[in-house]
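We were asked to recover a plausible sequence for a given structure. The inputs and outputs are reproduced exactly as logged, with field labels preserved.

PROBLEM: sequence recovery
POSITIONS: 278
GIVEN STRUCTURE:
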């Protein structure tokens, strides 16, 4: 079972969600393909998992940051797997982790210097004891302590990034800049340093993320209608953009999603309330 829990309200513009996984993988369910999203994940792992591109997989450490990327990766998890993590918005990771953000790294995960081994050991013990709720509480306490050392007030660039994400990537950079009182050049410069990428890349990934979730959740998606709803010029443009991030067509992604559901019909994905944990 994988649970998604909202973050502390004071962190909501920097942290997208917390996650908790408790699952047992078989040879039929151990392979996963992770597609680009507008997130940077700090994860604490108990179990045997591997991450990489193509056939090049590296065993994941007990603590790691999965960086922002614009390409899919393979995740292979074997046997019992427990994990708790924080999904940051890219600008939240820069603010709270000081994490390098890159979409062109060969192995898209790093061990962060800003997270102490003592914290990792404490969370590892809780995961080993299957105390995932307690691990989440410890993780949030650490996050709030980190947040107390930085200015949580959104900058103009972070405000613009948040608006762009909430608009699912639609709109022009000029309109976005005007909306926060910056020139296009100022916005692009501040985006690069505070968000970790150009506005256009964030917009493209936000639209792709919306598209893949719609396809995955829809019983019978219409790609022409979806392309129109997301603001693509036409279905051909939508398909090209989807291939650029997924390395397969929307139809290929749909077939893969249905096969995953067939192989893992009992997998539960739960949107939990904060009161259920905190």
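RECOVERED SEQUENCE:
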């Amino acid at each position: 079972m994988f649970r998604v829990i909202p973050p502390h309200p004071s962190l909501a513009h920097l942290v997208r969600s917390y996650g908790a996984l408790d699952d047992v993988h078989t040879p039929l369910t151990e392979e996963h393909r992770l597609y680009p999203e507008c997130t940077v994940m700090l994860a604490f792992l108990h179990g045997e998992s591997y991450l990489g591109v193509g056939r090049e997989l590296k065993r994941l450490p007990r603590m790691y940051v999965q960086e922002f990327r614009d390409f899919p990766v393979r995740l292979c998890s074997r046997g019992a797997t427990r994990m708790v993590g924080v999904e940051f918005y890219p600008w939240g990771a820069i603010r709270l982790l000081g994490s390098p953000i890159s979409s062109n790294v060969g192995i898209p995960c790093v061990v962060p210097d800003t997270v102490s081994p003592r914290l990792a050991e404490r969370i590892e013990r809780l995961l080993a004891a299957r105390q995932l709720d307690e691990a989440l509480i410890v993780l949030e306490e650490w996050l709030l302590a980190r947040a107390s050392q930085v200015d949580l007030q959104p900058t103009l660039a972070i405000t613009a990034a948040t608006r762009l994400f909430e608009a699912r990537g639609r709109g022009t950079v000029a309109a976005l800049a005007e909306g926060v009182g910056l020139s296009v050049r100022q916005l692009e410069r501040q985006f690069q340093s505070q968000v970790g990428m150009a506005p256009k890349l964030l917009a493209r990934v936000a639209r792709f993320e919306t598209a893949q979730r719609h396809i995955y959740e829809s019983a019978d998606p219409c790609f022409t209608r979806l392309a129109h709803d997301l603001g693509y010029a036409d279905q051909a443009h939508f398909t090209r953009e989807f291939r650029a991030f997924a390395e397969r067509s929307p139809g290929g992604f749909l077939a893969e999603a249905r096969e995953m559901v067939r192989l893992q019909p009992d997998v539960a994905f739960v949107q939990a309330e904060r009161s259920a944990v905190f």
